[in-house]
């Protein structure tokens, strides 16, 4: 197969995938519209047209953009902190048998604590602006840590590092870092969407001012299902975009230069 044939095949596959995605969206919208017409109650389920009218209204509101930006900022900051914390826990677990046992137990506790209990405690200790970010860190960190634990360095690489005395910073940079990149990227691309969903849910429970979750809560209090669906739609689209952007980083290769 020559270059032109490969490009044509790639174009056909991309077009086909795009058509499948568009068809899936249209099917979901048709199902939504049919159910809304059957229910015939905008306080329970608005029509697609009503939801998009409310979405247009939100896009003309200054508070919506402020809420959107604050939610995205909290999501990205908490996600970066979760990555750093997971990496530190992973490196600490490799220090000795004791630290490995301690870190594994600590992460297991994080996985087991009910999210609602953490939110209630954090609302007493912090405030509604900080609590959602901490919740996201506590939820995402164990997921990233579990992904790092699946990373293994083969015996031949370990022997080579012993022969050439590669340890400490050089071992991390030349051996672990490339493996971390290849192992971690698939997990990160899916975790960023989960992080956003957890953030919005935490904002709803914490009644966070200037947030997508806060807008959702206000809409639910006044039974404004159109605005609720509109904000949910924005959240879904944002999660997909963040996931796609992060998945593109797999094409970025770490260039290692031995100076």
Question: Which features would summarize this protein structure in a list?
Answer:
2 domains; 259 residues; 10 helices; MetI-like fold; mainly alpha; disordered C terminus; 0% strand; single chain
Short recap of the structure:
The chain has 259 residues and is mostly helical. The protein is built from ten helices and no strands. It folds into two domains: 40 residues; 208 residues, MetI-like fold (Orthogonal Bundle), CATH 1.10.3720.10.
List the helices and strands and how they pair.
Layout: H1 3-39, H2 48-59, H3 62-93, H4 97-112, H5 115-125, H6 131-149, H7 155-163, H8 168-206, H9 212-221, H10 225-247
What can you tell me about this protein's structure?
- This protein is mostly helical and 259 residues long.
- It has two domains: 1-40; 44-251, MetI-like (MetI-like fold, Orthogonal Bundle), CATH 1.10.3720.
- The chain is 80% helix and 0% strand.
- It has ten helices and no strands.
- It has helices at 3-39, 48-59, 62-93, 97-112, 115-125, 131-149, 155-163, 168-206, 212-221, 225-247.
- Helix 3 packs antiparallel against helix 4, helix 3 (62-93) packs across helix 6 and helix 3 (62-93) packs across helix 9 (212-221).
- The longest helix is centred in the last third of the chain and has 39 residues, at 168-206.
> What percent of residues are in strands?
under 5%
The CATH superfamily of the largest domain is identified as MetI-like
In total, the number of strands is 0
Distance between the termini: 41 Å
Succession of helices and strands: HHHHHHHHHH
Chain-averaged pLDDT: 83
Give the CATH topology of the largest domain.
MetI-like fold
Major sheet attributes: none
- Gross morphology is flat
CATH architecture of the largest domain: Orthogonal Bundle
What is the rounded Rg? 23 Å
Label the structural class: mainly alpha
User: Approximately how much helix is present in the residues?
Assistant: over 70%
